[in-house]
TrEMBL record:
Active site per the UniProt annotation: 248
Highest rank taxon of the organism: Bacteria
Family: Belongs to the aldehyde dehydrogenase family.
Keywords per UniProt: Oxidoreductase
UniProt-recorded name of the protein: Alpha-ketoglutaric semialdehyde dehydrogenase GucD
Taxonomic lineage from the root: Bacteria, Bacillati, Bacillota, Bacilli, Bacillales
C-alpha cells in the first residue's frame, strides 16, 4: 500500500513529493508499502484543515459525534484481518498479538463512542439562592497526536477517539516504522464518513513533521507517547508556548517474587511480561527481584520455559516471539547485551541475533545481575532482555525496584496480604499489579506512570476527559 497523507478528507501526496519505504523487519526483502516523507508545508495544510473543521465539529452533540466512532468500529471489525496482518508484517509482532491489538482498538472506539452520552459537568451550590452555578467541559480545538510504533493501532486510537468524542479535531502523526498500518486505521474513519478535517493524518520524520506540529501556534494540545528524549523536547516546547501537553514515556518495570509466591504463576507472568511483543512494550517486565528462598526454583523453571520459546516469522502460527521492530532496535538491543557482558552480569540464556541477514530476530535473553546500578539494570532497553536479581526479602526487593528513574508499572507475586499492602503503598509506579504481569492495560482505567515515565497526567477511561477538555465554571443569576 502507498500511504498518502489524509488532509481535509482527501488522501494526498506530500507537497514536495518525497516518499519513504516501510520494510518488514522479519523479511528485509518484503516492502510493506510507502509513506509520505512530509515537510512543514504539509503540516501547515493539515493544521489548517483541522482548524477549519473545529467549529462545526464542536457544534454537534456528543451522540452525533459518537455515531461516527461506532461506525468506524464496525468497519474496523470488517477489516480486522487485513489490519492485523499489515501490523504483523510492518512491526514484527505475531499475528495473534496484532489481532488482539486490533480488537482492543475496536473496543476503544466503542467505549469512547458511549462517552458522547455521559455526564459532562457538575452542578455546584452557589452561595446566592437565586443563582445557578455549574461546570461544563469544552473542547480544546486542534490536538496533535504523536505516537510510537510499538502499538500502531491501539495507541493512535486511545488518543484520537477521546480527542474526537470531546469535540476536538486532530492531526495524527504516527511513527514512520508503522505508517502503513496507521493509514489503514485512518481509512476506517474515512469509510465511516467522518466529516473532512476532523481527523488528519500526516507522516514523516519526528524531527521535521513532529517538531513543526508541536511548534505550531494553532495546535492547542499535544498528546505524545514515545521515548523520554523526545518527550522532554516536546514538553519544553509546549510549555514555552503555553500549549497543553501529555507525555507517556519509558519504563524499567520490575516484578517482585516473594518467598510464598505461586512460582509457576510468577514464572509464566515474568516470561510473558518480558518477552511478548519481543519486549517492546512500555510496560514490559525488564527486572525480576526474586526472594532467596525460591530463587533457584524460579530461575530453573524460567530458563526451561524461555528455552522453549519459538522465535520466527510474525505470520507463522507457530511463532511465539517475532523479530524486533527494526534494524535499529536490533542494534540497540545487541549493544545493551554487550554492555551487560562488559559490566560482568552473567548471561544465563540468549544474547545473540538470529538469521540477521533475513531480519531483526534475537534470542530471548536473561542476565543474572548483582550490580543494580549497571546499565542493563537501570536503562530502558525496549527488547527481550531481562535482568534477574536474588534478594533478601520484600524490603530489599522494594528498595531496589524503586531505585530507577522510571515508575510506569510494577508487579508482585505473593499470597501474603502484608507483602501486598507494603508493595501497594511503597512501590512508586502508576500501574500496580498484584499476582498479574507488569504488562496489561484495561481501557476503562487510568493509564500512566510516575517519575520520568510520564508528565503525570493520565490517559484512558475517565482520565481522558481531563486532558482533552477544559472546564468552564458558569455562574448565572436571575
Ligand atoms: P520516539 O520518541 O522515537 O518516537 C515517538 C514519536 O515521536 C514518533 O512518531 C516520532 O516520529 C516522533 N518524534 C520524534 N522526534 C520528535 C520531535 N523532535 N518532535 C515531535 N515528535 C517527534 O519513540 P519510539 O521509538 O517510536 O517508541 C519507543 C518508546 O515509546 C519507548 O521508550 C517506550 O517505552 C515508549 N512507549 C511508552 C508508552 C507509554 O504509554 N508509557 C507506550 C508505548 C511506548
Amino acid at each position: 500500500m502507498d500511504a498518502h497523507n489524509f488532509i481535509y478528507g482527501q488522501w494526498v501526496p506530500a507537497v514536495d513529493g518525497q516518499t519513504a519505504k516501510s520494510i518488514n523487519p522479519g523479511n528485509l526483502n518484503d516492502t510493506v508499502g510507502t509513506y509520505q516523507d512530509s515537510t512543514e508545508a504539509d503540516v501547515e495544510q493539515a493544521v489548517q484543515a483541522a482548524q477549519e473543521a473545529a467549529k462545526p465539529w464542536r457544534k454537534l452533540s456528543g451522540a452525533e459525534r459518537g455515531a461516527f466512532l461506532y461506525k468506524t468500529a464496525d468497519i474496523m471489525e470488517e477489516r480486522l484481518d487485513e489490519i492485523a496482518k499489515t501490523a504483523a508484517r510492518e512491526m514484527g509482532k505475531t499475528l495473534a498479538e496484532t489481532k488482539g491489538e486490533t480488537l482492543r482498538g475496536i473496543a476503544i472506539l466503542r467505549y469512547y463512542a458511549g462517552e458522547g452520552l455521559r455526564k459532562n459537568g457538575d452542578v455546584i451550590p452557589a452561595s446566592d439562592a437565586k443563582a445557578l452555578m455549574y461546570t461544563t467541559r469544552v473542547p480544546l480545538g486542534v490536538v496533535a497526536v504523536i505516537t510510537p510504533w510499538n502499538f500502531p493501532i491501539a495507541i493512535p486510537l486511545w488518543k484520537t477517539a477521546p480527542a474526537i468524542i470531546y469535540g476536538n479535531t486532530v492531526v495524527l502523526k504516527p511513527a514512520s516504522e508503522t505508517a502503513v498500518t496507521c493509514a489503514k486505521v485512518v481509512a476506517c474513519f474515512e469509510a465511516a464518513g467522518l466529516p473532512p478535517g476532523v481527523l488528519n493524518f500526516i507522516t514523516g520524520s519526528g524531527a521535521k513533521v513532529g517538531q513543526s506540529l508541536v511548534e505550531h501556534h494553532r495546535v492547542n494540545a499535544i498528546t505524545f507517547t514515545g521515548s523520554n528524549t523526545t518527550g522532554k523536547k516536546i514538553g519544553q516546547t509546549a510549555l514555552a508556548r503555553g500549549a497543553k501537553y501529555q507525555l507517556e514515556m519509558g519504563g524499567k518495570n520490575p516484578v517482585i517474587v516473594a518467598a510464598d509466591a505461586n512460582i509457576e504463576q510468577a514464572v509464566d507472568a515474568t516470561l510473558s511480561g518480558a518477552f511478548k511483543s519481543t519486549g517492546q512494550k512500555c510496560t514490559a517486565t525488564s527486572r525480576a527481584f526474586v526472594d532467596r528462598a525460591v530463587y533457584s526454583t524460579f530461575k530453573k523453571l524460567l530458563l526451561e520455559k524461555t528455552k522453549e520459546i519459538v522465535v520466527g516469522d510474525s505470520l507463522d502460527a507457530k511463532t511465539w516471539m517475532g523479530p524486533l521492530a527494526s534494524q535499529n532496535q536490533l542494534a540497540n538491543c545487541l549493544a545493551y547485551i554487550e554492555k551487560g557482558l562488559s559490566e560482568k552480569a552473567t548471561l544465563l540464556t540468549g544474547g545473540h541475533a538470529i538469521d540477521q541477514e533475513k531480519g531483526s530476530f534475537i534470542e530471548p535473553t536473561i542476565f543474572e545481575c548483582r550490580d543494580h546500578h549497571s546499565s542493563i539494570a537501570q536503562e530502558e532497553i525496549f527488547g527481550p532482555v531481562l535482568a534477574l536479581f536474588e534478594v533478601d526479602g520484600i524490603e530489599e526487593a522494594l528498595r531496589l525496584a524503586n531505585d530507577v528513574p522510571y515508575g510506569l508499572s510494577a508487579s508482585i507475586f505473593t499470597k501474603d496480604i502484608a507483602n501486598m499492602l507494603a508493595f501497594i503503598e511503597d512501590m512508586d509506579a502508576g500501574l500496580i499489579r498484584v499476582n498479574a504481569e507488569s504488562a496489561g492495560v484495561e481501557l476503562q482505567a487510568p493509564f500512566g506512570g510516575m517519575k520520568q515515565s510520564s508528565s503525570h497526567s493520565r490517559e484512558q477511561g475517565e482520565a481522558a476527559k481531563e486532558f482533552f477538555t477544559a472546564t468552564k465554571t458558569i455562574f448565572v443569576k436571575a
